[in-house]
Amino acid sequence: MTRSFGPVQLGSIEIFLKTAEALSFAKAANELGLGAPAVSRSIARLEERLGVPLFARSTRKVRLTDDGRLYFEQCKQALQQINNVEETLSGHQRVTSGLLRMSVPTTYGHHRIIPHLPEFAALYPEIKIELNVSNRNIDFIEEGYDLAIRLGEPADSRLIARKLEDATLGVYASPTYLKKNKSPKILTELKDHSLIQFELPSSGRPMPWIFRDQKKDIEFAFKAKVGFSDDVLACINYIKHGGGLFQTYDFIVADDIRDGRLVEVLKHLRGRSRPFSIVYPQNRHLSQRVRAFVDFILKKTAKSR
């Protein structure tokens, strides 16, 4: 007589796979968040349906029978194929279309994000990119942003942060300024110079300069006659025209250093950095658009370091 099979119960198969991996009904039940009797009943129904024992049970241990091992290998392979198909279909629907809204700070945006956007747009032509370039703190929920680039890590536990890089710092001035003012050799000589201060947009407080002297970290605070807020690039433009000394990220002034528009001073005191992270709300079902961009930009910033 031919055995009649009902529809495949994926839940029972998943319970079987977890039990086969753990070789313990109790461990499988714990990992699945079920009671041990429920796992035992599910396996029994599956064995009855198939007409073969899948496990050899004893008082001390559980092991797979030959039939059970064959069933395990085939079911695991089949379930993986189902997962692959679902990921492909989900990815096709979500990655290739829709709106991706991002907020990036001015300096990091101009130098580290925007140069890579044409490549990302070519890879995902159906994604519409909306980029906000500013230094203000955005509200993900109220303003509907998908992700943001921020200095440091967020205090909000509802946000996930993936570090992009530790951006190194240096103190820079123009050759014109240094012709008129002797280049400082030690920190105390900075008092004789025009130091440019930048205020943090989030707090309005001046950002201190940071140094490393023989493995000792130093924070240098000062009062400046000239200060800027919101846009670090304004500070860079100011010192390129002979305004004084300014500490900033190396990636911002790389071209100016190469072309001789700026010169680094106090090189022996460099070594400090500040972290930049890509931030997005916790979401069990993370948008494929967000996932695609996060993976893309992490690879790009890794190559830039």
Give your account of this protein's structure.
The chain has 305 residues and is of the alpha/beta class. The protein folds into three domains: 10-94, Winged helix-like DNA-binding domain superfamily/Winged helix DNA-binding domain (Arc Repressor Mutant, subunit A), CATH 1.10.10.10; 95-165 and 276-304, 3-Layer(aba) Sandwich (D-Maltodextrin-Binding Protein, domain 2), CATH 3.40.190; 166-274, D-Maltodextrin-Binding Protein, domain 2, CATH 3.40.190.290. The chain has helices at residues 10-22, 25-32, 36-50, 66-95, 106-113, 117-123, 140-143, 175-180, 232-240, 250-258, 288-304, and strands at residues 55-57, 62-64, 98-104, 127-133, 147-151, 159-173, 196-199, 209-213, 216-220, 226-229, 246-249, 263-265, 273-281. Strand 1 and strand 2 form a beta hairpin. It is elongated and about 95 Å long. The mean pLDDT is 87.
